[in-house]
Specification:
This protein has 351 residues and is an alpha/beta fold. The protein folds into 2 domains: 2-252, Rossmann fold (3-Layer(aba) Sandwich); 259-351, 3-Layer(aba) Sandwich (Ribosomal Protein L9, domain 1). It is 26% helix and 22% strand. It contains 11 helices and 13 strands. The chain has helices at residues 2-13, 33-39, 44-48, 75-84, 97-105, 107-114, 156-166, 192-196, 205-214, 233-238, 299-306, and strands spanning 65-69, 89-94, 121-125, 141-147, 167-180, 203-204, 221-227, 244-252, 266-270, 280-284, 287-290, 294-297, 314-317. The strands form 3 sheets. Strands 1, 2, 3, 4, 5, 6, 7 and 8 form an 8-stranded mixed beta sheet that branches. A 3-stranded antiparallel beta sheet has the order 12-9-13. Strand 4, helix 7 (156-166) and strand 5 (167-180) form a beta-alpha-beta unit. Mean pLDDT is 90; it is low at 9-14 and 344-351.
Length: 351
């Protein structure tokens, strides 16, 4: 039901983003300046068929090779194509022919608009539950992104496992999706409208953490989140008692990350050299690192900076020779803010 309904809903039921009946598949936050400038260079037809729920433009991606899962009409791919530059590459995978037709129709228009000698974007028709059946080389991508798509598929564990397989060591999956405060009842899972609006397929946040860790992403990091509103009274009544959230996570492919945030007495100093984050670098929602300040950090966070593309932007203090126990404040519980404006009730990583 999942793939067929997605093709029907996004290919035929919806003709533009204004047709959505909830704000689950919309973006509420103001983009960074670089993204605003890049969005201005995206064709109007592509923007009209955009159904993402968050921003998937990670920092420090110049020259990167990026895979976009569920690329749709191509808006995110065309934004990222500008941010990676002419020597980077973006590959989009989508299963909806109507969306792919729009994305492909404007390849040359975007190449000319970007001023590139040749296009650095290509789109592939395929099911993101079957990435192993596509011509994608394992360990060949620096970053994998996805925008409000994983909730639409049935075998989410397979998507995470394939993403881990396709990433280079030190690469990351950076994606936005919809999550729920409890598991959606079985009888609602096949409702075509709830599914198409990114609600019935939303992962219970606890199940997401289990699936991502089982795929090899040992320490998922929450970057940002917001509660979702359901304006349609019928849909709201069907889902009464369940809270939904749009959240952006980053999952690093790193060996030897530990299950808990462990304290080795380490610290970092941010050099202020990431474009767009010159004053404060955001590793995740609980690690906002000011330029020039000595910032105590756990062993996992150290590796997320030292063993990735971010290493050149930091000075590292300490090593792993002495263990001082777990960082205080790390624990479970709903990680998302429960109302607009909240910063979140429980830390998702080390404090």
């Amino acid at each position: 039901m999942n793939l067929e309904n997605s093709r029907e809903y996004y290919g035929k039921v919806l003709s533009e983003s204004a047709d959505l009946r909830t704000d689950a598949c919309t973006t509420a936050e103001r983009p960074p300046l670089a993204v605003i400038k890049a969005l201005a260079n995206v064709h109007a037809d592509v923007k009209a068929r955009y159904y993402g729920c968050g921003l998937i433009a990670p920092s420090a991606i110049a020259g990167a090779r990026i895979l976009d899962l569920g690329s749709g009409s191509g808006q995110d791919a065309y934004i990222l194509a500008q941010l990676v530059g002419e020597h980077g590459e973006v590959v989009g995978v989508d299963a909806t022919p109507e969306q792919l037709a729009i994305a492909n129709a404007h390849l040359e228009w975007h190449r000319e608009t970007f001023g590139y000698a040749k296009s650095n974007v290509r789109f592939v028709e395929g099911d993101i539950e079957k990435l192993d059946e596509l011509d994608l080389e394992p360990g060949s991508f620096d970053i994998i992104v996805s925008n409000c798509v994983i909730n639409l598929v049935g075998d989410k564990a397979k998507v995470f496992a394939d993403a881990h397989r396709l990433l280079k060591p030190g690469g990351e999956m950076y994606f936005s999706d919809v999550y729920s405060s409890r598991r959606v009842p079985q009888h609602l899972l096949t409702d075509p409208v709830l599914h198409g609006e990114c609600l019935s397929g939303a992962l219970y946040w606890g199940d997401f953490l289990k699936l991502s860790k089982a795929a090899g992403f040992t320490d998922p990091r929450l970057v940002k989140d917001r509660p979702l509103g359901i304006g349609d009274p019928r849909i709201a009544d069907m889902l009464d008692g369940i809270d939904f959230f749009s959240a952006t996570y980053r999952l690093f492919k790193l060996d030897d990350l530990e299950p808990e945030c462990e304290d080795y007495g380490q610290a970092v100093v941010y050099l202020g050299t990431v474009e767009g984050e010159e004053r404060v670098f955001t590793l995740d929602k609980h690690h906002l690192i000011e330029r020039g300040r000595i910032f105590p950090i756990c062993g996992n966070s150290w590796k997320m900076l030292s063993d990735t593309r971010f290493a050149e932007h930091f000075q590292f203090i300490g090593d792993f020779s002495t263990h001082y126990g777990v960082f205080a404040g790390c624990g479970g519980g709903l990680p998302f803010a429960q109302a607009a404006g909240e910063d979140g009730l429980v830390a998702a990583g080390c404090c």
